[in-house]
C-alpha cells in the first residue's frame, strides 16, 4: 500500500495536514503492521479537524507481577500517541486472565486465580505509569462489562463468529492437526478480547505480533455491533540481551523496569552493537533523525559504546531519574576498572571456616552450591579482588569482599 492512496482517500472527508502526516509517521515508527493504514489516516484527519481525541486501547493480562523492557515496546507507542493528544486506555484483563490466553501456545494455559490476578494487577498499572502519563491515562478492567454479560450474553456473543474462522488461527490450527487438545473455553478468549473493543468503542488497538488474530476479532465484532471498526497496530517482539530469543524472564535475557539503576545500565551495555540499533528504534524516544545521525557517526568510525551509553542513560533515567543514570554510569566505569562499588550488600554469616560454595549461596550471590562451583571453574569468583580457582577453599573468620561475575558483590563478615 502506498502512502499516496490513503492520503487521497482521507482528503475526501477531512483535510490531511502536515500534523496529520506527522501523527501517521509516529504511528508507523518501529511497528510491524498498521491495519488498515488508510482507515487510520482518515481517523487521524477527522480527529485533527474536529478536535476529538481518538481512543487508543492496550489490554494486558496481569499474568505476572513485573514488567520488563519487552512489555514497554507497546507502552512506548501508547505514550507517543498520548503525546499527540489522544486518549489512551490501559485495560487490565482481570476477566480474560481467568480464561487464559492461548496465543502462541501449544497447550492450554492454566487460568489464574482471582487472588493472583488482583495481586498482579496492583503492580501492573504502577509500573506502566513509568512510561505512560498517569494523569492522561484511562484505566479500566474488563470485568466491568464481561461479568454482567452472563450466560445469555456469552452465547449471543459466541454466535457472532464461526468455528471455521476460529480454526484459521495458527495456534488452534496447529494444535488440532497435531492431535493436541483444545478446550472450548479457549475459543472464548479472542471473543472476549474483541468484545472489549466494543465496550470501549476503541479507534485503535495495540498489541504484539502474536496478538494479531485477537486484535482483528475486535474489528469484526465492532462491525457486528454497528460500530466503526478499530484499526490495529502490532509491534514486534523485542529481542532480549542475547539478541536471539524474545525478551523473557524464563530465558533470563531480560531487563526488569524495576531493577536497580546499576544493573539496568550494565545490562544495556552488555547487548551487541547490532542489537543496540533495534533497541533504539523500539525503546528510545529520540527522533529518528537523531538516531540516524548517531548510527552514521558509528559507521564513520566513532566508538559504538558512546551510543550504547546514551541509550542506557535514557532507559535508566526513564525508570529512575537522571541522577540515578549518572551514578549507574560511574558505577559501571568503576567496575570496568576492577573497582568495587561504594554501595554493596553487607552480610554477616556464622560457621567459620566456611566452604566457598556454602558462603556464596548463603550470601545470596548464587542460587546453589553447584552454580558456585561452576562460576569458580569459569574464573568468575573473586575475593578481595583476587580470582579464586580452588573450589575446596574454606574462608576463615573476618570480613571479605566477594564478587561473582561482573555485577554481584557482597561484603561478608564471617564469624566462628
Automatic annotation (TrEMBL):
One of its GO terms (molecular function) is tyrosine-tRNA ligase activity. Its EC number is 6.1.1.1. It is an enzyme of class 6 (ligase). Pfam families: S4, tRNA-synt_1b. InterPro entries: aa-tRNA-synth_I_CS, aa-tRNA-synth_Ic, Rossmann-like_a/b/a_fold, S4_RNA-bd, S4_RNA-bd_sf, Tyr-tRNA-ligase, Tyr-tRNA-ligase_bac-type, Tyr-tRNA-ligase_bac_2. ATP binds at residue 249. Keywords: Aminoacyl-tRNA synthetase, ATP-binding, Cytoplasm, Ligase, Nucleotide-binding, Protein biosynthesis, RNA-binding. Residues 354-415 form the RNA-binding S4 domain. Signal peptide: none annotated. Catalyzes the attachment of tyrosine to tRNA(Tyr) in a two-step reaction: tyrosine is first activated by ATP to form Tyr-AMP and then transferred to the acceptor end of tRNA(Tyr). Belongs to the class-I aminoacyl-tRNA synthetase family. TyrS type 2 subfamily. This is Tyrosine--tRNA ligase. It comes from Pseudaquabacterium inlustre. The lineage of its organism: Bacteria, Pseudomonadati, Pseudomonadota, Betaproteobacteria, Burkholderiales. The gene is tyrS.
Amino acid at each position: 500500500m502506498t502512502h499516496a492512496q490513503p492520503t487521497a482517500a482521507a482528503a475526501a472527508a477531512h483535510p490531511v495536514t502536515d500534523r496529520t502526516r506527522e501523527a501517521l509517521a509516529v504511528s508507523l515508527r518501529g511497528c510491524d503492521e498498521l491495519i488498515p493504514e488508510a482507515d487510520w489516516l482518515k481517523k487521524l484527519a477527522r480527529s485533527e479537524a474536529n478536535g476529538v481525541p481518538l481512543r487508543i486501547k492496550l489490554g494486558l493480562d496481569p499474568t505476572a507481577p513485573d514488567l520488563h523492557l519487552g512489555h514497554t515496546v507497546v507502552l512506548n507507542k501508547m505514550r507517543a500517541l498520548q503525546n499527540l493528544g489522544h486518549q489512551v486506555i490501559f485495560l487490565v484483563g482481570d476477566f480474560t486472565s481467568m480464561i487464559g490466553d492461548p496465543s502462541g501456545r501449544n497447550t492450554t494455559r492454566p487460568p489464574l486465580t482471582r487472588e493472583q490476578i488482583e495481586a498482579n494487577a496492583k503492580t501492573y498499572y504502577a509500573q506502566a505509569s513509568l512510561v505512560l502519563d498517569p494523569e492522561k491515562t484511562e484505566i479500566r478492567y474488563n470485568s466491568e462489562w464481561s461479568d454482567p454479560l452472563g450466560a445469555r450474553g456469552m452465547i449471543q456473543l459466541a454466535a457472532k463468529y464461526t468455528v471455521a474462522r476460529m480454526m484459521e488461527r495458527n495456534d488452534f490450527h496447529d494444535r488440532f492437526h497435531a492431535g493436541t487438545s483444545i478446550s472450548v473455553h479457549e475459543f472464548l478468549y479472542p471473543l472476549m478480547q474483541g468484545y472489549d473493543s466494543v465496550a470501549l468503542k476503541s479507534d485503535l488497538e495495540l498489541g504484539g505480533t502474536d496478538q494479531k488474530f485477537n486484535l482483528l476479532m475486535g474489528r469484526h465484532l465492532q462491525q457486528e455491533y454497528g460500530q466503526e471498526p478499530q484499526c490495529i497496530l502490532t509491534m514486534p517482539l523485542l529481542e532480549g540481551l542475547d539478541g536471539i530469543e524474545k525478551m523473557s524472564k524464563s530465558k533470563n535475557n531480560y531487563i526488569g523496569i524495576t531493577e536497580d539503576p546499576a544493573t539496568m545500565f550494565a545490562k544495556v551495555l552488555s547487548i551487541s552493537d547490532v542489537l543496540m540499533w533495534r533497541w533504539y528504534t523500539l525503546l528510545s524516544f529520540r527522533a529518528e533523525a537523531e538516531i540516524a545521525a548517531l548510527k552514521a557517526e558509528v559507521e564513520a568510525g566513532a566508538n559504538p559504546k558512546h551510543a550504547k551509553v546514551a541509550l542506557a542513560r535514557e532507559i535508566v533515567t526513564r525508570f529512575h531519574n537522571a541522577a540515578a543514570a549518572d551514578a549507574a554510569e560511574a558505577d559501571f566505569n568503576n567496575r570496568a576498572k576492577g573497582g568495587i562499588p561504594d554501595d554493596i550488600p553487607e552480610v554477616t554469616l556464622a560457621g567459620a571456616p566456611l566452604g566457598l560454595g556454602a558462603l556464596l549461596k548463603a550470601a545470596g550471590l548464587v542460587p546453589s552450591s553447584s552454580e558456585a562451583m561452576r562460576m569458580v571453574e569459569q574464573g568468575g569468583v573473586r575475593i578481595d579482588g583476587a580470582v579464586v580457582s580452588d573450589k575446596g577453599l574454606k574462608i576463615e573468620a573476618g570480613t571479605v569482599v566477594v564478587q561473582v561475575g561482573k555485577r554481584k558483590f557482597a561484603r561478608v563478615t564471617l564469624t566462628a
